């Protein structure tokens, strides 16, 4: 797999299990890239939905993608604290200037006090039947929800305040 160059902008492309595009973030600055990890930053980034509708993100965000994990983490930096939006999805691949993954509907929203809520369970069950998610994918995703919850409770990785401070500072250096 190719590795993007640190300091360059890449697209983030989210797909559904059936291969259809789900959502595209126009640009994210690569802050760190290895064979297994991409950390990026963005702010006021145009996002295009599958139906062509567009919107712009409202705050700076640090994005964490791992090639071995079935979730990714978006830390949104707001005046009243850091909010996290965690997508349950396939490990990413980097191809032709874009980070790509399959979004599997389930999401975990984490608040600044580290309380969290599992979202979109109904959507997951509906799409699981509609798109025929295999049982093995269902099992992997449920295991990864548990792993994600452990990370949140342990303040591991992106859930540590120091992690966000370090990577947001790095992001800001690219803006100057």
TrEMBL record:
Residue spans crossing the bilayer: none
InterPro entries: DUF402 (IPR007295), FomD-like_sf (IPR035930), Ntdp-like (IPR050212), SA1684 (IPR016882)
Pfam families reported in the protein's UniProt record: DUF402
Annotated binding of Mg(2+) 2, by residue: 105, 107, 120, 123
Cofactors, names only: Mg(2+)
Catalyses which reaction(s): a ribonucleoside 5'-diphosphate + H2O = a ribonucleoside 5'-phosphate + phosphate + H(+); a ribonucleoside 5'-triphosphate + H2O = a ribonucleoside 5'-diphosphate + phosphate + H(+)
Catalytic machinery residues: 23
EC number(s) recorded for this UniProt protein: 3.6.1.15, 3.6.1.6
A single MF term (Gene Ontology): ribonucleoside triphosphate phosphatase activity
Chain positions recorded as Mg(2+) 1 binding sites: 87, 103, 107
Residue ranges of domain DUF402 in the record: 18-156
Protein keywords: Hydrolase, Magnesium, Metal-binding
Function: Has nucleoside phosphatase activity towards nucleoside triphosphates and nucleoside diphosphates.
Membership in a protein family: Belongs to the Ntdp family.
Protein name listed in UniProt: Nucleoside triphosphate/diphosphate phosphatase
Organism this protein belongs to: Siminovitchia terrae (Bacillus terrae)
